[in-house]
Amino acid sequence: MTMEELRRFSLPDVGEGLIEAEIVRWHVRPGETVEVNQVVLEIETAKAVVELPCPFAGTVRELLVEEGTTVDVGTPLITVATGEAAPAAPGGDRVPMLVGYGAMPDATSRRPRRTPPPETGNGGRAAAKPPVRKLARDLGVDLAALTGTGPRGSVTREDVRRAAVPEGRAAVPERETGAERERIPVRGVRRHTAAAMVRSAFTAPHVTTWLQVDVTAMTELVTRLRGLADFAGTRVSPLLPVARALVTVAGRNPMINSSWDEDNQEIVLWRRVNLGVAVATERGLIVPNVKGADALSLPALARALTELTATARAGRATPGDLSGGTLTITNVGVFGVDGGTPILTPGESAILALGQIRETPWVHEGRIAVRRVATLALSFDHRIVDGELGAAVLREIGAMLEDPLLMLAWS
């Protein structure tokens, strides 16, 4: 007779530094049979929606977390009854399981380990889980100054979020007694984006500089590229030459492709350009990036941008797609506006915004003519990029868009 054993599958770290995820949808129910590597649920992390496969076969006994719940890495998600016990190591201990799952602990009663009460208050280290500590860092909250309301006086996420709202300011202002309203939970990608934007806006001193550019020649180039066989099956838009110009100028001005290391008080210059592209999705704004964009030919860059944006809009961007960016571009013109003041992606020193291309009266070769004109906006970290360099970078980008031949000369 085969001994049945209950095994649990816990939330693994599916990306770089994942600390929590929301359970989006279960694909199985108690009583159903699962196979090894069968997808059993979908989770939404701070960066993407990810399908999780079960690492063992058996019968589902219990779903331990409801849909819509946010849990920490290591939280048990599901129990599965397998047909045989896991092998035991010498001495009777179980063989260590891979990250994300393991055997259910036995039912033997154990005396809780005595631990000293957490140090809080003046001079002490506040008790808080790693996810709570990260949230406090993101929101600029001093944990040592908080009085925890959690078990044994530990600091909770709610404690940190309350401290992040200035005293006397309501999170949502009351307009009138009995006013109708709706509260929308902020989770997953949108919550991560909000925290990242707050961290960036209040950490890096932003400066934005603007430039109007005659992009008539650039739009004519785009039209010609669409007819070439090398670009068949790809979406050739004005974003392509703008992206190429940004990558080119980064090679000529390395400081805009860099990061500020606060701990070591150093500027980190990146050898490759991992070009981030801001993409609006149903779940919020995400910024996947093209790895090594500076090393790609123009057709290869066009394919990479096409595939990346399609993957992002379909909700299939992976944590790898969404991490490691060094420089970002955002096309706000698709929303029908002329420009904006883009916020830096945390850890980057510059972001370029492209406004809508409009037919505009313009002085061209000494005469007023109708030309296609766009506004560029470059935001940069003033700790790394000073005003002179920021202006020079934007002028060079504008020059390449006015005369695309310069992209070849400067590459």
Automatic annotation (TrEMBL):
It comes from Streptosporangium saharense. It holds the Pfam family Biotin_lipoyl. One of its GO terms (cellular component) is cytoplasm. Belongs to the 2-oxoacid dehydrogenase family. Its EC number is 2.3.1.-. Residues 6-81 form the Lipoyl-binding domain. Residues 104-130, 147-179 are annotated as: Disordered. The lineage of its organism: Bacteria, Bacillati, Actinomycetota, Actinomycetes, Streptosporangiales. InterPro entries: 2-oxoA_DH_lipoyl-BS, 2-oxoacid_DH_actylTfrase, 2-oxoacid_DH_E2_comp, Biotin_lipoyl, CAT-like_dom_sf, E3-bd_dom_sf, PSBD, Single_hybrid_motif. Coiled coil: none annotated. Residues 127-164 form the Peripheral subunit-binding (PSBD) domain. Its cofactor is (R)-lipoate. One of its GO terms (molecular function) is lipoic acid binding. The keyword Acyltransferase applies. Residues 155-164 have a biased composition (Basic and acidic residues). Keywords: Acyltransferase, Lipoyl, Pyruvate, Transferase. Signal peptide: none annotated. This is Dihydrolipoamide acetyltransferase component of pyruvate dehydrogenase complex.
